[in-house]
């Protein structure tokens, strides 16, 4: 095998793992792909004879690249129009999941609740938590990646861990229950039935819509089932079966749907988070066309 082929094969063996780290660090599939591609360039130029652990080397490289990107991303978020949501991953796209050898439950969690919690952490807290708690790197390796002491990295990860566990749903909902709720939700929307929709929602339900200033969207989160039901039924009047189509999909691991025109123009994704008590606790709608480029109608 040629040396160039061997170099590429070694990198490809870790690409999925690197995508998983980068997406959770950045919340953007496009930026994650760019970070992984830059990591490939660093790998190609590296003296690999000096690399003892390829996965640790590449994880460190992609994490540092993500931290650099987060510096500019934070400035952009400060002027972001309306609510911010991570770029959706549709139909359980495995390229943003680590390999099956990664057993930690959080490593396979792409839910909006988890991603939004990561977004509220500082970049260093996010990196320390992901590398150690989620992707099983030792604190010595994390310290090397972040340029901090192992003790400092333990503190960063501990603060992050506290935030993550405080914001995680207490109950894991079975896929069949999620599908049942999604069907009831869609049925109420199509029937224009405010009361039926409100019955599907938790009393303290949340609705978040991201248009990024590019398209119309609810500018701030909505709270409470009656208000959300009324607003959604109002929006539903613009949905016409002869002009639009709604296909069921898994959005960041949640039951939901992709809405497009019959001509194939993507309008939005909608993900529904169940509360474990037979109700929908959160609705996440992505309308920003910049974040829908990798979604199939």
In a nutshell, what does this entry contain?
The protein is α+β, with helices and mostly antiparallel strands and 297 residues long. The protein has ten helices and six strands; from the N terminus they run H-H-H-H-H-H-H-H-H-E-E-H-E-E-E-E.
What does the model show?
The chain has 297 residues and is an alpha+beta fold. It folds into two domains: 3-167, no CATH class; 175-291, Nuclear Transport Factor 2, Chain: A (Roll). It has ten helices and six strands. It has helices spanning 3-26, 29-45, 54-78, 112-120, 123-134, 139-146, 150-167, 175-191, 194-200, 225-236; strands at residues 201-210, 222-223, 244-251, 254-261, 266-274, 280-286. A six-stranded mixed sheet has the order 2-1-6-5-4-3. Strand 4 and strand 5 form a beta hairpin. The longest helix is centred in the N-terminal third of the chain and has 25 residues, at 54-78. The relative contact order is 0.12. The model has no long low-confidence stretch (mean pLDDT 90). One of its GO terms (biological process) is DNA-templated transcription initiation. This is RNA polymerase sigma factor SigJ.
């Amino acid at each position: 095998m040629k040396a160039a082929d061997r170099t590429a094969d070694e990198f490809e063996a870790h690409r999925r793992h690197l995508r998983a780290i980068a997406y959770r660090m950045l919340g953007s599939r496009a930026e994650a792909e760019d970070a992984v591609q830059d990591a490939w360039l660093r790998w190609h130029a590296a003296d690999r004879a000096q690399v003892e652990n390829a996965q640790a080397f590449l994880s460190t490289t992609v994490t540092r690249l993500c931290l650099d990107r987060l510096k500019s991303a934070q400035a952009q978020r400060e002027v972001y129009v309306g609510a911010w949501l991570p770029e959706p991953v549709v139909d359980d796209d495995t390229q943003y999941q680590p390999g099956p050898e990664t057993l930690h439950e959080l490593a396979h969690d792409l839910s909006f609740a988890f991603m939004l919690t990561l977004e509220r952490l500082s970049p260093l807290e996010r990196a320390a938590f992901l590398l150690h708690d989620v992707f099983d790197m030792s604190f010595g390796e994390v310290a090397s990646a972040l340029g901090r002491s192992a003790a400092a990295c333990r503190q960063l990860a501990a603060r992050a861990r506290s935030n993550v566990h405080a914001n995680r749903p207490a109950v894991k909902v079975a896929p069949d229950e999620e599908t049942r709720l999604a069907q009831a939700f869609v049925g109420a929307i199509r029937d224009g039935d405010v009361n039926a929709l409100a019955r599907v929602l938790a009393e303290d339900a949340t609705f978040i819509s991201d248009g990024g200033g590019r398209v119309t969207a609810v500018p701030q989160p909505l709270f409470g089932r009656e208000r959300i039901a009324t607003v959604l039924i109002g929006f539903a009047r613009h949905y016409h079966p002869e002009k639009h189509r709604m296909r069921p999909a898994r959005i960041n691991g949640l039951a939901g749907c992709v809405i497009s025109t019959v001509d194939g123009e993507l309008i939005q994704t909608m993900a529904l988070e169940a509360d474990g008590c037979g109700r929908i606790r959160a609705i996440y709608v992505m309308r920003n066309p910049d974040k829908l480029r990798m979604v199939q109608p």
